[in-house]
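assembly run, all chains below
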Amino acid sequence: MANRPQIRTAASALIAMIADEYASSVSRTMQQPYMFDHLLMQVHCWDTVVGFLLAGVGNVDLRRKTNYLIVDSKTTIKQIEDAFKEFTSREDIAIVLISQYVANRIRFLVDSHNKPIPAILEIPSKDHPYDPAQDSVLSRVKNLVSVESVASDRR
Amino acid sequence: MMEDQEEKGNAENGIGRQKQVKDEYLLQFLDSLDGYLTLLDSLSSTLSQGWLELASARHAMGASRINGALLDLKVHAAATSLKVSEQDVDSMESQPCFTLCKWASSDNGERSSGEEKSLSPQLRHRNNSQLSGIISSPVSFSHFFNFFLSCEEEKVSTRTGTPLILVDQQRQKSLSVFGVLVSPKLRSAQLSFERALETLVEIANLHTTMLSMFEQVHKELENTNG
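ok done. output:
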């Protein structure tokens, strides 16, 4: 009993989100200055996060830090990594939702996360459907199965 | 002689029990894997529905009214949160168990009343700017009527304070970022994403079970090979 790993329990924990969506089609019904197009792009990019914010998941703390990150064409890999590290180290976050497309960009970091909390869940995005072959947990299972089948063949 | 046979029998029973335990872990792992994949498929469908409803709402209300710039960056706590508890798997291991608390009002009553107070001036402001455009159109009269009903409901809620009405208040507060009168499609999108959240919490619980069983199976396989 003394060697049992401690599970961090919480009465009220947050869900963090790292979502991306690149506008698959930006309709240009009329010529507009760049600012309008940028806004339209943002509307298309924010759908998943907006949806979950409508469901009441959004949190802004006293330092004006949010529990979500929108990844667009200007977001760097470093920014995504920093956000991921921040969300996985925060005590008040229990689940991190990350678009699988974004997870692929920081795959090494996602795969190296092996704590039970926060749970990292890869979700589909509007333009990139979920692919089980790329899921961190499922690919680990697949590797184990393939290693065992090779080992049993050798025996 | 008899003792040797007894020892042999005990050893065989022990091996049989070990095999049974291994099979149990494997079955549990495969069950959780199957549940995980099924729920992810269900999540994809729910999210697709939510995106479609959001796009319909944007089409009905206009792109300028469903805009990322309107997102509330004022200090506020999440209305939907998680409760994390410990679940015993066996004597040597435990795993986290997630429970979704949808639209749970904050335990800090001061904070929640503060949020409500800050909401009403915004509503009045939006009222004045939007009503003049709305009343002129016969189609939008139904929207005005629905808004009037929701105001009446809010009055009732302050008197009775029943949980269902509080949940509706929280939902309305979340929608109010995009204006007082919103398209029914936006409300449907909100419900779709709430369903998606419920599915995600189930996925998270299966995820932890799957990882736990995976570790067990891995250990057993290593012991067998070793």
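Helices of chain A lie at 34-45, 47-54, 77-89, 100-105, 107-112, 136-154.

The CA atoms of residues 21 and 127 of chain A lie 7 Å apart.

not gonna interpret more than that til we talk
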